[in-house]
Each structure stands twice: as structure tokens, then as C-alpha cells.
Amino acid sequence: MRIVLVGPPGAGKGTQAVRLAEKLAVPHISTGDLFRANISRQTELGKLAKSYMDAGNLVPDEVTIAMAKDRMEQPDAVNGFLLDGFPRNVAQAEALDELLRTEKMTLEAVLDLEAPEDEVVKRIAGRRICRKDSSHVFHVAYNPPQQEGVCDICGGELYQRADDSEDTVRTRLEVYHTQTEPIIDYYKSQGLVRTISAMGPVDEVTERALEALKSEQAENH
């Protein structure tokens, strides 16, 4: 299956993308990972992206699209992929359609994870990361440490990332509404969107997503 995953920051896209890709046995293609991989391997695209990022500018669509194209042409993506963080706007969605047409591929579903804005703000603004090991993540409401400000696992100091503050989260949501949300209407016009609630336990959200995709496959066969 070829799937695009969309949803606001804090809806749990990253978590669901990894789980769904594993269940569907397709690669999880995340723009963040693409940038990191190309920059660390010092590919031409990586060097180009880094030059924009170092100057504090957004990486142009064509560079992102070229990286995505390169990744989608890898052998492990022949039978499908799950795109996370791409396309980020309508221009990228149109470029993806063009790319898939050229490669004689079709997109089968766009999974839209929905979560109320206040919940998203609460989820992100409550996150606390360990300074010693950033994989140790806590939450002031949902997963509090035993001792405030101290990591249960290694005793490191817990802190709130600058881009997790409430003001920054609301700004990120504003960017999502103006730039990314329009792709949902773009794909709705193609009959591809399956909207599911991102609320509740992680396992339940994964099950909902798989059910939505199953109904999509059933309709197409």
C-alpha cells in the first residue's frame, strides 16, 4: 500500500507511522529521516538542503521532492510506502501526484489523524526530555517522573524543549492549518482521505487506522 499520513503536531503521527509501516510491511518514509540521512551521507541533495538550513531558510519544495523521489525508488519501497511529513503543502502534493503518475504508481489512502487543538497543546507542552538521553521522554500529566525534573531511568535533568512551549506549539499549529491542512481537501477531491481519531491509547489508534485502511483496500478490490 502507498499511504500518506497527515495530522497536526502532537497527534502522534511519528508513533503511528512506525507501527503502521511495520504492520503493513512497508518502509516508513519520514522527511526528518530523509534530511538526516542525506546530510549525514553528504549526498548532493543533503549538501543543498544543509546550505539552506544553515542559512536559517526553509528547504525548497524541489529539494524535498527530489529526496522523497530518490527514497521511493529504493528496492524496499517497490510494494508500497508510508509517507510521514510529506507532502507538507498542496504544491508538494501535486508534485507527488506527478511523480507517481510518471512511475505508474497510485496513492491508495491518505490517513488523517484528528485531535482537538487543546489536547494537542497539552500533549506537546507537557513533554519533558532527559538531557542525558533524549530517548527518555516523560509527560507532566500522562507519564510524570517519580521526582519532578529528574529522569527515572538515569537521573538526568528533565527539561522542556524550546519548540515545545505552549506559544511555539500554537504557532506550529497555525502553520499546519495554513500550509498542510489544505492538502486534506486536495486529497478529499480524489476520494482518498480516511479520517480517524488520534485520541485514546496508542494501540487503539493503530487498530482504528488499520480498520480504515482495510475498508479502503476492500473498496479498491
What are the key terms here?
transferase, P-loop_NTPase, Rossmann fold, 221 residues, single chain, nucleotide-binding, five-stranded parallel β-sheet, alpha/beta
Instruction: Please state the second-level CATH architecture of the domain at 2-116 and 183-220.
Output: 3-Layer(aba) Sandwich
- Biggest sheet: strands side by side, in what order? 2-3-1-4-8
Biggest beta-sheet profile: 5 strands, parallel
The tally of beta strands, per DSSP, is: 8
Give the % helix: 40-55%
Kindly report the name of the CATH homologous superfamily of the domain at 2-116 and 183-220. Answer: P-loop containing nucleotide triphosphate hydrolases
Helix and strand run: EHEHHHEHEHEEEHHEH
Gyration radius, to the nearest Å? 18 Å
CATH third-level topology of the domain at 2-116 and 183-220:
Rossmann fold
Describe, in plain words, how this protein is organized in 3D.
- With 221 residues, the chain is of the alpha/beta class.
- The chain has a domain of 153 residues: Rossmann fold, CATH 3.40.50.
- It is 49% helix and 14% strand.
- The strands form two sheets. A five-stranded parallel β-sheet has the order 2-3-1-4-8, sandwiched between helices.
- α2 crosses α3 and α2 packs across α4.
In short:
This is Adenylate kinase. With 221 residues, this protein is of the alpha/beta class.
Write the layout of secondary structure elements.
Blueprint: E1 2-6, H1 13-24, E2 28-30, H2 31-40, H3 44-54, H4 61-72, E3 81-84, H5 90-102, E4 109-114, H6 117-125, E5 127-130, E6 137-139, E7 158-159, H7 166-180, H8 182-188, E8 193-197, H9 202-220
Parallel strand pairs: 1-3, 1-4, 2-3, 4-8
Antiparallel strand pairs: 5-6, 5-7
